[in-house]
Design brief:
Helix content is about 30%, strand content about 30%. The chain is of the alpha/beta class and about 450 residues long.
C-alpha cells in the first residue's frame, strides 16, 4: 500500500530541540571500510535508512560479521568484525544496492580489486543513473567491468589494478572515492584531480584508519602501498547528524512565522555546508554553537529562527557543497522577496530523478512561479502557495521538500508516494510532528 503524506497549513510556530539521523555518506563509507579493517570497529549513531541498509546487507553478503544494537529507529550502533583488505568472501550474485547510487559507485571501486567476480544491481530507478563516470576511470586502472549502456547492472571480474592520475571534469565525491578505494588494491600511486570542492569523507576516514591520503592543491593522492599491502586500523566513530537531513527542518523553521528550532550535533564538514551559506545569503537567522570534532569530522548545534528572507543567487562551489539541499532551498525561495536563481547545477538532472524538471513541475501545481534552465532554475517570490496533490516521484528529497512547502500553503497538501522518505530520513514525519508541524501519514 502506497504511503501518502498529508500536510495542513501551519498556524503555530515550530519550536524545539531535535536530532536528525546520522550522515548517509559517512554511514555508507563506515560499513565498507570497517569491513576491510584489521580488527573490530565500533560505529555509533549509524543511519538505518533504505540506502544504507542495502550497503549493510551487501557487507554481510560478503562474509562480514556485524552486530547491531538498535538504539532507535534512526540510530543504530554497529560492531563490525573487519576481515582485512582481502578478506571478503565471494557473494552470490547479484549484490542488491536497492536505490543507493553512492553504495553502487563506491562498492564498484572496492570490488574491482577483489579476487572473485561480482555483480552490482538495484532498482529500476538506480538502473537509469549514469555509471560511466566510475566505470571509465576504473577501466583505465585495469578493472574488468561491464555495464548496460553505461548503467547498472555492473559486472565485475578479477583483474590486476594499476594506479592512475585521473582528472575529473566535474568535482564528484563518488567518482573520487571509487578511484581512491580501487587504489587500495592498485600497484603504484593513485591520484585524482578535482576542479572544485567535493565531499572528503573518504579521505578523512582513510586517514583515521592509517592510510596517508594527502591533498595538495586540487590533487588528492593515495601513495603506493607498503610492502604487504595496506592494513586498515579499525574505526571508533560517532556518525554526525546529516546536514542534508537537517536542511528540511532548518528551511521549515526559516519560513514558518515565529519559529525557532535547534538541531544537535550536525556535521559541519566544509564540503557539506552549502545549505547554511545559501540560507544566510537570504538573511536567515542561523547560528552555530557547541562546535567540536569527532572521528575527524567537525560537528555543532544549529539554531535557526524565522526571519524575512530576500532573494539570492547560487552557483559555483556553493552548488557543489549543497547539491542535495537545492530542492528544499527552492522552497525557501518561494517565501523570499525577489527572484532567486540557481546555476551550475546540471548534476541535479542525473539524481534519483531529473530533480530540476520534476521539482519545477510539482511546485507549479502549488502555484510556484519557477522557471527551468539547462543547469538550474529561478523562482520569483514571495508568493502565496495553494494546497494541492503532488508526487515525490519516488525521490526522498523531493518528497520531504514538498512536505515543507505544504506547511506554508493555503489549503491541504497531499504528497503521493511519500514512503521513499525513509531512503534517507526514517522518522522524518515524527520528528517534524515533535516540533509542532501539522503533517501526518495517510494510507491510500
Amino acid at each position: 500500500m502506497s504511503k501518502q503524506l498529508l500536510i495542513r497549513p501551519q498556524k503555530t510556530p515550530l519550536k524545539g530541540i531535535i536530532s536528525v539521523p546520522g550522515d548517509k555518506s559517512i554511514s555508507h563509507r563506515a560499513v565498507m571500510l570497517a569491513s576491510l579493517a584489521e580488527g573490530t570497529s565500533v560505529i555509533r549513531r549509524w543511519l538505518p535508512a533504505g540506502d544504507t541498509l542495502a550497503t549493510l546487507q551487501i557487507a554481510q553478503d560478503l562474509g562480514v560479521q556485524i552486530n547491531i544494537d538498535k538504539r532507535s529507529d534512526i540510530a543504530w550502533d554497529l560492531t563490525i568484525e573487519g576481515r582485512g583488505l582481502h578478506g571478503w568472501q565471494a557473494p552470490q550474485p547479484p549484490l542488491d544496492c536497492r536505490n543507493a547510487g553512492t553504495g553502487m559507485r563506491l562498492l564498484a571501486g572496492l570490488l574491482a580489486g577483489q579476487s572473485f567476480p561480482s555483480v552490482l544491481d538495484g532498482t529500476e530507478q538506480l538502473r537509469k543513473r549514469p555509471m560511466r563516470r566510475i566505470t571509465d576511470p576504473l577501466s583505465e586502472m585495469g578493472a574488468k567491468i561491464s555495464s548496460e549502456n553505461g548503467r547498472a547492472p555492473l559486472t565485475i571480474s578479477p583483474s590486476q589494478l594499476q594506479g592512475i592520475a585521473y582528472r575529473m571534469n566535474v568535482a564528484s565525491a563518488q567518482v573520487k572515492s571509487a578511484i581512491l578505494l580501487a587504489g587500495l588494491y592498485a600497484a603504484g600511486e593513485t591520484r585524482v584531480y578535482q576542479p572544485g570542492p567535493a565531499r572528503d569523507h573518504t579521505e578523512r576516514m582513510l586517514q583515521a584508519m592509517g592510510v596517508p591520503v594527502r591533498t595538495e592543491g586540487s590533487w588528492i593522492t593515495l601513495p603506493e602501498s607498503p610492502e604487504g599491502g595496506w592494513r586498515l586500523r579499525p574505526l571508533d566513530l560517532t556518525v554526525p547528524a546529516d546536514p542534508s537531513s537537517a536542511a528540511f527542518p532548518l528551511v521549515a523553521a526559516a519560513i514558518v512565522p515565529h519559529s525557532e528550532i535547534t538541531i544537535a550535533g550536525v556535521g559541519l564538514n566544509e564540503t557539506r555546508t552549502g545549505i547554511l551559506d545559501m540560507l544566510q545569503a537570504m538573511g536567515a537567522e542561523l547560528t552555530v554553537h557547541n562546535e567540536h570534532v569527532s572521528g575527524g569530522e567537525q560537528l555543532g548545534d544549529l539554531t535557526v529562527s524565522f526571519s524575512e528572507l530576500h532573494s539570492a543567487n547560487v552557483s559555483g562551489n556553493t552548488v557543489v557543497r549543497g547539491i542535495d539541499e537545492l530542492p528544499v532551498w527552492a522552497i525557501a525561495t518561494t517565501q523570499a522577496a525577489g527572484v532567486s536563481q540557481v546555476s551550475d547545477a546540471a548534476e541535479l538532472r542525473v539524481k534519483e530523478v531529473d530533480r530540476i524538471s520534476v521539482l519545477a513541475g510539482e511546485l507549479q501545481k502549488l502555484g510556484v512561479e519557477i522557471a527551468e534552465s539547462a543547469d538550474g532554475f529561478s523562482v520569483a517570490g514571495p508568493m502565496r502557495l495553494f494546497g494541492g496533490e503532488v508526487d515525490s516521484h519516488d525521490d526522498h528529497r523531493l518528497g520531504m521538500s514538498l512536505a515543507v512547502a505544504g506547511l506554508v500553503t493555503h489549503g491541504l497538501t497531499l504528497v503521493h508516494d511519500a514512503g521513499c522518505i525513509a531512503d534517507s530520513f526514517p522518522g522524518f514525519v515524527e520528528m517534524m510532528q515533535s516540533l509542532g508541524a501539522n503533517m501526518a501519514w495517510v494510507e491510500q
